[in-house]
Known about the structure:
Layout: H1 3-16, E1 25-26, H2 28-35, H3 39-51, E2 55-58, E3 62-65, H4 70-91, H5 97-107, H6 116-134, H7 137-160, H8 163-180, H9 184-213
Antiparallel strand pairs: 1-3, 2-3
Helix pairs in contact: 1-3, 4-6, 4-7, 4-9, 5-8, 6-7, 7-9, 8-9
Amino acid sequence: MSLKLQAYTTIKQKILSCEYPPNALLNEEKLCEDIQVSRTPIRDALSRLEQESLIQILPKRGIIVAGISLEEVEHIYELRLLLEPYALEHYGKTIDPGVYEKLLDFFARSPKKISLAEIHKKDDEFHHLFISAAKNAYLTQAYQYPYTQNIRLRILSGNLGRPRIKISQGEHCEITKYCLDKSWKKGAEALREHLLRSKDISYNIITELQLLLNPRSL
């Protein structure tokens, strides 16, 4: 892996995992120390991440991890609600039943016995599963940006709203059972309801973060 790719991959992962949370200030020198590369790969990585709207480079202010606004939450879920239930209903049947059985086994486990990292990873796989099954490059491309931003939303929701995780696990089980029963329309509707609940949680999380960053708005 080249130093440029190493820097880009590492910083992006830290942003998506919220190790560098929304609205955090990043320091170029500190990034060099953390990743153990020179300024050139760091600057190249930052340029790419700015193009992906994951950071903002502001004159005289520095590097800021892109925030997530309530408007952006609305836009993310508007697209997800259009794409994910559609993909499940039309392409869920192309997925091997064994995949659904493994998902059901995982989501039926108690969240107390699974790390947050495992839950986030499996949740990520679950929601991308139906988009991937479509084998439609245009659909995949349309899903890419909200998919990337949703990784951050999901982690923030999981970290600040852990009681929601058990409920979410149950919702994933319900969707997966419909898929095993080949009830694609019911599965798509259950997925839609799951996304609407997730949207509400995301709204609450972003509102809470905004109040923490700007308490005078209370």
